[in-house]
Specification:
The chain is an alpha+beta fold and 246 residues long. The chain is built from 10 helices and 7 strands. It folds into 3 domains: 11-67, Multidrug-efflux Transporter Regulator, Chain: A, Domain 2 (Orthogonal Bundle), CATH 1.10.1660; 85-161, no CATH class; 166-234, no CATH class. 59% of the residues lie in helices and 10% in strands. The strands form 2 sheets. A 4-stranded antiparallel β-sheet has the order 1-2-4-3. A hairpin with a 6-residue loop joins strand 1 and strand 2 (10-12). This is MerR family transcriptional regulator.
Length: 246
Amino acid sequence: MATSEADEVREYRMPELAEKAGITVRTLRFYRERKLIPPPRRDGRIAWYNDHHLARLRTIAGLLERGHTLGGIAELIAAFESGRRDVGELLGLPGTVASWPSETPVRLTPEALADYFHGEVTAENLTTSLDLGYLAVDGDEIVHLSRRLLDVSHTLVEQGVPLAAVLAAAREVRDHVDAIAETFVTLLRTHVAADALERGEDVGETVERLRPLATSVVDAELTMAMNRRMRAETDETPPGGHSGNQ
């Protein structure tokens, strides 16, 4: 095993990497041929793998355990989240070119991601993040699709919320947000898109102009709902405590 003191990234020969990943050398070769892992560093005829390769292999193992096929895993790894989605696709209309605003992706090394979440980046959490589409793998780097979501997750972990709980909540929020998005898309398709086409207007521009209305509605409703929740929590009498009326 070779160690680079400059970047503290350990390197392994193929048999050692396979052993650490809990797979056979034959399986490792197969993954390399399928381009599921990046090429090793070559030193003459010797191939050196490092901790980035080991992290990738552990991620693959976690995805396989969750029922993903190798083909699906290859798509997840190859996918590069741009954070953009065409409005025409959302509305089911041809010819529209405007897009919803994009999120800002963030590139991180595996070590930087681990430091960002203070040791909470386990194989299970990586697998969940890939499954949610928050993370994609690009060579030796990990790409998080959204700076905003990354920062929120980091803050919650800093406040003592386990990353696994953050991701579980994110999956639940995703389900609710998908339903909200469907409501607004149906509203726009039914009452805006058709009329805009009849008037000869650009559907994409019309939808883009109205998009902030949907964001405002969701933000206002969420604020009011959280206020109701907090009041309900405050009004509850704690065990052994006294009510406000004495």
